[in-house]
Amino acid sequence: MSSTLLNIPYSVLDLATIVEGKTPIDTFPNSLTLARLAEEWGYTRYWFAEHHNMMNVGSSAPTILIGYIAGGTKSIRVGSGGVMLPNHAPLVVAEQFGTLASLYPGRIDLGLGRAPGSDQLTALAIRGENMNAAFNFPRDVEKLQTYFSADNVDSKVRAIPGEGLEIPIWILGSSTDSARLAAAKGLPYAFASHFAPAHFLEAIELYRQNFKPSEFLDRPYVISCINVVAADTDAEANRLATSVQQFIKGVVTGKRQLLPPPIDTMDGAWNYFEQEAVEQMLAYSIFGSPETVKNKMQAFVELTNIDEVMVTSHIFDHQARLRSYEVFAEVMKGN
């Protein structure tokens, strides 16, 4: 086993994906079960992504889910991957995460994105007259940093709780714009390569080249999120992966559906253009047996030189999903 993978922390990104025949009432306890096992298996952090108006994604209120998971685990870091900051007032975010960090000291991460996490009509419903908030993203990140700073004690507007707490801020992105911001502010950078692979390599290179050390971070730090479906055999992993392929086909075609059960083959389930689009979105995905996962992860780390990998796994059967995360942990630990 190469030492390369042994040196890479590994984490979970959870969208609280809702599968056919189930509801969020079923989904959230499954997330807690996974988080508890992920803690045992050596995962570093467990993040939720903010999405809205998506019938198959239950993580519309990540702050609440972070509290739920942190309260049900002991040591794993829990956070947002991320909070879409233009949807919220920075002061409210500071207070919410200040509360979480007060309840679970040293365990809360705040990942920030600038996208709406939904379509434009839904963004309008969330933001109202503040539809141009994305343009204020750099300034709003600075506001958050100010609210968390102990130096803000004499300000007329303070985040209580939040002020003086060390809550790591991460910049999330799917483009080069976010890379420039993370580099300029000397913050760690998490890239959404699990669904936006096109600018991934360019963005992390730009981030590293332009990184300015800060009080928060002295060298660049990159997390890449990838899709993983691991099983005991390649054939079983590829069969299970048809669920995420169907799921992404729904994104591509605008015909969203609850996460469907796997099928024996995608032949006949998509046309040529749908297949091309889905495979492009899933470019950074690993489907396979432990040996296949190890080889593909080794190649991915050598290509990207990432500091940490974050795994998301859209798998229909809960037990198969748990097994996938267990296999991945075993690979990363060299077992």
UniProtKB/TrEMBL annotation:
<protein>
    <recommendedName>
        <fullName>Luciferase-like monooxygenase</fullName>
    </recommendedName>
</protein>
<comment type="similarity">
    <text>To bacterial alkanal monooxygenase alpha and beta chains.</text>
</comment>
<dbReference type="InterPro" id="IPR011251">
    <property type="entry name" value="Luciferase-like_dom"/>
</dbReference>
<dbReference type="InterPro" id="IPR036661">
    <property type="entry name" value="Luciferase-like_sf"/>
</dbReference>
<dbReference type="GO" id="GO:0016705">
    <property type="term" value="F:oxidoreductase activity, acting on paired donors, with incorporation or reduction of molecular oxygen"/>
</dbReference>
<dbReference type="GO" id="GO:0005829">
    <property type="term" value="C:cytosol"/>
</dbReference>
<dbReference type="InterPro" id="IPR050766">
    <property type="entry name" value="Bact_Lucif_Oxidored"/>
</dbReference>
<feature type="domain" description="Luciferase-like">
    <location>
        <begin position="22"/>
        <end position="303"/>
    </location>
</feature>
<dbReference type="InterPro" id="IPR019949">
    <property type="entry name" value="CmoO-like"/>
</dbReference>
<dbReference type="Pfam" id="PF00296">
    <property type="entry name" value="Bac_luciferase"/>
</dbReference>
